[in-house]
């Protein structure tokens, strides 16, 4: 169980992600659960039942001290023993004294016992003695801490059951004492004596439990529970006086009452002082006899200042009278939270915020954000255990950095980060977290803690967390009717001072600002406001925040005064007065004024029931909600009390009376549910409860036979949440748990539980063993029955009677045999069973059934068996003799012919086997800097893959002033403005696609120039693209939903390709691009490891059968020493060792030398290959030129073989000189043979030409070569590059604890919404849509064309290999399982065994993206705006506009008619004519 919990903890609590998430450090202790822990100086001290640990602040173990040993009563000594020992020192008080470097530990050992340890090293025990400072019972409860009394340090010990004498009776009264901390004090170490007296505070009655205590300045606070008579919570104050006696006599008391307006909570669970000055604020968790119902309240516990004589009714100084004064009553200043089973609390001040960390009984650590008015704002879960493990009542803040909380759960101590700021990748995301710890650092351009952002602007959340937008706006109307737009930023400035400014851009030009002063700015609006698009940019130092506003006419928002109309009015920046929407004259917007209005709707959705109503925190798929009026419901919203944000789930199937949806993952606790309508309203009321996840503890038995079907017991908590049980060796699923069949044994199979979209591992693996072997049976008569004894070979299966069914066969009938026992002896198991049949019956056979198998044992007729053994050998011997006589002569003639062929094939097969077994993936040693193309050239290759003049024209010429260019192109400017009209743009696209003469190539061109033209406004491009996609999906001709987005047959599909490329360029650069480059480099190196035919480019090592060089001859590795000529005086460089092959041509050797040069020095040898020549050293100072072709070259017919190192008989370790023909004229004048137009016809390398030749001239090349023998080379290459393929694939579809890129999340959510809108319930349609839009449309294009991403050339051979990988990539997204046979293409077979695993990962990826927190519209607009801003000056927009106008001009009449039919306003049609006139009349925008 512990191991299972630890496995789940790694997945849940110990999260660490690619974005650098801070991890949860864990210390798993030994010797029982944690009894107490404390933090002092740089160390953490943890005590369990058997050990005391000293840890550093990262929970690394420094020292441990066993608490077991032997107590020597005679000498009052405790001798520790590493093993055994009859005594245990049960520590219940840890009191560090940092000033004197001491740690006091007290508890129970025989009676009371204390030790003084070195604070730096707890293994250094300074002293130990019998002393009852804390309860001497092992589970006694106490509070002990160091206090300062008049400049002296004492240990204040408040403990129940303190004994007056060591051997006295055990009184159940509690006492408070002050104990010395060193021998120099009166009474020596740990004494409570003060002069001649022993002062103490005594509880007047039994049943007092001390909970917490601390000292603030000169006041000591003690909190306790009184469990007698009427239970109550008491607070005691002590003032630091001149002595122990005076300090204890200063006792004052109060009673804490919790809480108002409900049932009284008379028991304190945990408490924490709130840091700060006066008043002294304190937080406590209260409960009653039902410990699951708890409340968190804040009190002012400042001590009373009036000087009065006080006698406490519950506590007295020594033997003072019991009757006393009535304590004052303290009531909460605020009840912060009512929540299930809170167990611990820690309060931290952060600027104006109060952050309260809360532990719970079901294993969660909550973070509650409270404002300066003590109003709870936001509750989040920062850690959770997989099961219901109670959090220890005490928590500590890590004093080093103050960014972690120490939390104990059973036997584990954890260091949990207070926040994960780094996971927020944008300013919007950082702000949306509503976490006071996190802010946007201008200098670092990331979300960070404030102390991580020195000397820079730090933007954080406002003091009011109810704000849901970073920027809000409103209108003000003056007496003259002029409308002013007021924009307010809800970003709080921190850190270094920063300038504040505003800019208002609109569709009619830049609006004049009336002024700005942080946090607001204003501008005057033009007379016509409705439909005006305004882009507001607020600049705070180096940070720009932009908001796109579509302004509405407040007076035009009319209708019945419903809450929806009111909220729409306020959201538009207008005011609400007298039941109508008006221009706001003054005051702030307040949505609360919309509450209480009549809805005006009689058929709002209602919720009757949700099944299930309980689920694990992983969520639940296909939950069913029943109710009334559900027809228009588009989503389900779930929100817990004080949750920072709500979760929403889309509707998957809706019948009107019921609907299904996936309950998303959440945090433990109750959430409220309502139903979303298209107008944004949420109606209905129900609740769901998230509980702990199932935890798999054990599987019994843990062995099975290979055929499976053994019944197994699996111990799982919360079993009702398990959907299915999964074995690692098969794709089969099962919930009724039986072992599944396997095709091999022995081996181990891990078992995981499927819970919603997650899999949870079981700690026990199932071992698959061979089938049981039953050998014989014996029947023996008894009084009224027949007893059978079955013999079985002993094994590790440990079969039990319930695993077996036995039947005896007599006279053709089966009789049940009841198993009575199974006995095990050396080597044999004996299974005894009883048949209720006549004792003289003869059993001829026994049927043994287990799992799905049936074994039959029979008795043999030994006489027939003997006769059979005699006759069969005689017949076989005769036949064999005749056969051997006929075969002998034939074998003699064939042996010589077959032997050579057999040897050749054997060698080839063996070599292929060796390659596969010895192949490794350590190919890449040094690839240098990755040569990424800049964004402009990457996008240009995507937009215009054919290249050409249009691509060149659309790229910005850096020598041309873009502002000057825009001024001279008035026609282009008008066209750009016209394109911002969605009705025109969509009408134009539809018109062009309806023309028969408008080809696929034209569609791609229009899509790309349109992308360039709108690149500065990606938000608008996205809106139009989605509008066109909806129209394409919903058109009646598109009945085959699975074919949508399959091919680029429309303009919008090409726009989608371009849009994905724009949005994913950053992800490509930061993540997947590196994996792609490594894969391409590994493929290139692997191909070069073996022979490569210089003429055809075919290679021995490849992934593509079409490019396999199966005709290759034998070759050997040759190591060369390459030296370079330096300068013109003949000076040589240091040699480079180059690995070449004996079959390499001279040009291939050159390429390998240059590759080694680049790998060593990090830059290329900047001389073209044709200008490089090689000279071979044949003696001291004697060099011979190496040429591709010379007079010594071999000629077959009219075809010449290229020279190789074998041709020149180049030995290993020989020196080869590298020269440039520009500096060193060649020994023999020769141009490159590859310049010959007939190169592939006139020359050959490793593949023999198809000409007749004497068979005896070159027998090496005439050996029989079989292509199928060399197919193992494909597998060798796959093994070599497999890790790079896997890394690339998982880099593409892996998200983890991080998030999918914003564009992917946004577009997948768009597709989900479109499917819901079209009422498409088939999940395969959605899967195919997502696959067609992302992997097929973007990633395959990148996989097959790395030259789009990197500055590199792609050979045809490399293209063939990448096509194989791309095919495997797309097969991973397929929903169909293709059965492959021996005739299947090798590119399919190569990755056949990997595809199932890849498919599971793809499904998990799609599920992960779907379950990811939705990206808000504002966040995505910020993302698109940032992408536009980054590449603002990359493209020549007028060139794209001119190209686009060619098509508008060609189909001008048709576009005009389409606008007419669409009901376009006259102004829009007039704009189109003005564009035409401008283009026709200006040469600057001529399209000829």
Features:
1488 residues; seven-stranded antiparallel β-sheet; eight-stranded mixed β-sheet; 25% helix; alpha+beta; globular
How would you describe the overall organization of this protein?
By secondary structure, the protein is α+β, with helices and mostly antiparallel strands. The chain contains 26 helices and 80 strands. The strands form 19 sheets. An eight-stranded mixed sheet has the order 48-50-53-52-51-54-55-49, with helices on one face. It has a seven-stranded antiparallel sheet with strand order 65-66-69-68-67-70-71, with no helix packed on it. A hairpin with a 2-residue loop joins β70 and β71. α5 (862-918) crosses α16 (1272-1293), α9 packs antiparallel against α26 and α12 crosses α13. It is globular. Mean pLDDT is 83; it is low at 1-20, 163-170, 861-865, 961-968, 1224-1230, 1252-1257, 1259-1264 and 1483-1488.
Structural class comes to: alpha+beta
How many strands, what sense, and barrel or not for the largest sheet? 8 strands, mixed
Q: Beta-strand level of the residues, as a percent range?
A: 25-35%
What is the tally of beta strands?
Answer: 80
Number of helices: 26
**Morphology call:** globular
Side by side, the strands of the main sheet go 48-50-53-52-51-54-55-49
Overall radius of gyration: 42 Å
Cα separation of the termini: 79 Å
Unreliable residue runs:
1-20, 163-170, 861-865, 961-968, 1224-1230, 1252-1257, 1259-1264, 1483-1488
Helix content: 25-40%
Mean pLDDT over the residues: 83
